[in-house]
Amino acid sequence: MVKTYGLTHLGLAVRDAERALRFYRAVFGVRVVWRGEGEIQVSTPGAHDVIAFVETPSRAGRKGGVTHFGFRLTSPTAIEAAAKRVIRAGGRILKRGEFVPGEPYLFVEDPDGYEVEIWYE
Fold it and tell me: Would residue 39 count as lying in a domain?
């Protein structure tokens, strides 16, 4: 076994890095940790993760073998606010419900077509 700190980053092919930044900032409050030509890297508040938005229009939104990625909420009551933020930020709700009572979820689509799970557990 190789000891790690867990999954630390995810690279997403996007059509427009600034648009991706606006969506993820509006929904999850991400902050920019690095900018380069055609790429913006962000981190979510209180975490040590990184999402790299890499401008690659021909590959944007293609899922390949990855079906979705997720963000875990700190409170089940935050699900409604998350749904509203997704819509206001230009995303759309794909499905919503509860895995079990008290554990709500949303599956949403970001502006590039990636499926994002938002849930409480």
Answer: yes
